[in-house]
Amino acid sequence: MKFAFVACLALVSCNSEESAETPPTPEKEKTPSHPWDLEPSDSALVAGKQVYLDECAGCHNEGEEGAPALTKSKEWAKRLEQGLPVLFDHAINGFDGMDGEMPARGGTPSLTDDQVKNAVRFMVEASK
User: In this structure, which CATH number among 2.160.20.10, 2.40.30.10, 1.10.760.10, 1.10.3210.10 belongs to the domain 35-126?
Assistant: First the structure.
């Protein structure tokens, strides 16, 4: 019995020394597992994310019908070279491109220009 008690003390002693010497690991900043999981702090991007999830994700999550997928940052970078005003115009008024078509307002005519612009801004930010 005395041996078991000494053995337990030794184990406890080793464990406490080990944890005292091992610095705590800092919490890693959460990186979204998918671009659409981005949690923006800017209110326009927060609003844009909601529009994206409600109206745009069906095509842009995976790149359906030629839409640039959010996971394809090179596709978005190429489009962004045209400038945000062009992307806004294509999203608001529609666009027929070589890869497919973008329906005006994503096929939801009730979206305002600002809602569409915020969604585009969110997609550009999330695709980085």
Answer: 1.10.760.10
